[in-house]
Sequence to fold (205 residues):
Amino acid sequence: MSSGEDSGERNPFAPPPPGAPDQPWRPRTPRPPETGQQTGQQPDGQPGEDRPQPPPWGRRPEPGQQQPSPPKLDPADPTHRTARNALLSGFAALLAVLFGLYWLAFPLSLLAVWYAITVLRTPAEPAADPFSPRPVRPQVPAALSALLTGGLALVVSLGVFGMQFTYRDYLNCRNDSVTQEAAHSCAQEYDVPAWLSNLYDVADE
Fold:
């Protein structure tokens, strides 16, 4: 590292010369701009404007500027209203399944799936700029949630109805049984799967 003697400037990081008196600490002053920049001129000699550079982390929002709010469901829009009804029907069908009300969960799940498919099949409005990214329509997440909850409730309710229809004689035998031994003998009499008899044994306990 050179001490800067050739250029006429002293290296600030170099040690002081021997025998120099101690000097008090003082803050470093910034280097003054060159002649062209002092008069507000650009390096090529043309006058320019002192424009502040934006910070690297982005501009701050102005005090009166409002941030764009995310899209919300509009009750006045028929498509948004259908998506809301689908979401409510899907959650109601799922709650009916959890409480064992399969006769109520089946029509609610059908309604939720129908509404959700109707919303998803609705075409989107044409964008003014075909190359700009399209925002997510607010009714799409609601319709997908309704399709998930309604479809799950529909599958469970259909499975319960199919099992009740297939093993109707066995279930009637269990319902007519007075004792636990008679209920266990129904599984051997009608040759039902072991998982079904164990499931109803656990439910009876």
